[in-house]
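Lecture 7 notes. Example A: sequence first, then its structure tokens.
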Amino acid sequence: MEFIGLFFNYVLVIVYESAISLVIVLLLLFIFRIKDSNIRILFFFLPLIKPFFIIIEKIDFNKEYFKYRPGIMGFRIPSPGTIFGQLKPIEKDIINYSDINHIIIYAILISIIIILIIRWTSLYIFYRHLAYDEKVYRTDLPEIYEIIDNFILKVRLKCPNVSLTHKNILSPFIIGIKQNTLVLPPVLIENISFSEKETLIQHELSHAKRKDNLIGWVALILKDLLFFNPFAYITYLIIKTEQEKACDKLLLEFSGKPSKEIATNILNLILKIKNLKNPNRLHYAYINKGYNFAPMQMLSNIIINIRVNLLISTKIEKIHMKRIIKILMIFLFIILLLVQVVFVIRINNIFIFLR
């Protein structure tokens, strides 16, 4: 019964909360036509944050009220008393050592926490090592540093370190929060044009300007903590996609290149990276149909198409939202963070309190 209660009171409720939050966010973004990337990413954090209100909240509702009703829907705001009441000092007898179910549940939870800590530490060490794989200076790569200097002057960003990686990694990326390091694969740099290098490096510097590393780590940790929740993975993918689109807009604003040239460079870079990973495979939709009908490849193509079309259609004057509207959107985010869509189901003598 302990495992059934855990499933109905927490696992199922958390999945429900994420699903409802994601649907509401998608509807609101569509209805209000929100284009500001920062506001969009903020709203997409709702399905990752709200489930933790469920975890720390004490379940307390009057079952007698629902005794003769098959179910009920409504809205609810968690009261501070039920939320923060769970943060009181832990009682000594909270674990019933005579109950094997309690012991198993706590053993599983502790094991999951240890595994996640190991995962996060390993990722940090891995990226940290890449940052020092082969550090290069201005005399080593003057062309790269020239591109960096021109862009960071426009966006007011501190000059990052540059490192080359000779591992099997073909996509460049930015590491670090206070002091950024731009990690570049030499095999890619050697096979692209100067214009493509500009777009590639400026795009990565845009991630640094936007502090996407910090946002990405927060989203990753929340997603990992909700590892059993499929909507957490969907939300994480959407946040990463929104970050890419946000950097494209920053490129459009500060690179001085027209949108079509940026879009062409991005498509060429994606194709060249794929060809370098699989030199014997042609990455064109009209040639290799069998490969492109694979589910993940189809999803990737859809995301790329949306990203490119959005970049081409974006107007510089509409990239940023007006301050008053942004404040209203933040206020709406706070409301959505607190309000719960309640759905109570009664199956025989079991009450499922979805919220």
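Example B, a different protein, same format:
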Amino acid sequence: MTLRHYKIFVTVCDTMNMTTAGEKLYLSQSAVSQAIAELENHYDSKLFERLSRKLYLTQAGQKLLSYARHIVRMNEETDSEMRMLKEGGFIRIGASVTICTCLLPQVILEFQKIKPKANVEVYENNTKKIEDLILQDQIDLGIVEGSIHSSDIISIPFMDDELVFVCGKQHRFKNLKKIVPTDLENVNFIIRETGSGTRDTFEDVMAANQISWKASWTCNNSDTIKSVVEKGLGVTVISERIVQNEIKRGELIRIPIAGIEFKRNFKICYHKNKYLSDIINQFIVTTKQFNA
């Protein structure tokens, strides 16, 4: 099988339409169909189910897609690495919102001291989206605080993190030295979106302690959460690293919850089939140094 076959196959999987895939590749629909047929004959497996004029990946197709993406991407990386060799290399980093806010800038600054000519691209999103980007080979490394669920991804913890409960100066909890878990059932939580590592940690701990809660505001960034909580519109559980300055200035008030802690790890993640180039390995080493 040739690189052309794999490129056609990946494009068909991305569009789930032979005609659309052909348009993207400037090929006829018949040429795309022939390439898929040749792949199916070569592997003696049906890669797509064709039902009511729609395509559905079979189990064999899903398996081949994982490898095909890497074959195509490795070819692109080879071209890119060879072109950019004199300029220092290229790496794509996907990071969750908390990581981008409180850690990644320092990591990149330190990395650039070692690889001053390296080109770094950063994609910020929640943990679930970063996991998807790794599986699609759209990024080389992910740095996240949430749980990775795919068995195809290697996840390496490198730093501890803790979420803390905070409220604003106007909130009725402001003068309390400690609150009990049952107090959490009657407050409005300002919380991250589903798919966020912060949201996952919060929900897991609350469920483990059988505490019901309600979200009055769902946000996809930490700045909005801090602003809303500061104005007294609710409370939140958020990484201590993100709110440490606001706590020092008295804009937010941290209050311990009796018997409850929100512990987690920051993790470096990459696909198990990923070729770890020198520049990727160097970024991993640099990131692991930030383990305090």
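Note on Example B: Residues 83-158+265-288 form a domain with the D-Maltodextrin-Binding Protein; domain 2 fold (CATH 3.40.190.10). The two ends are 48 Å apart (CA to CA).
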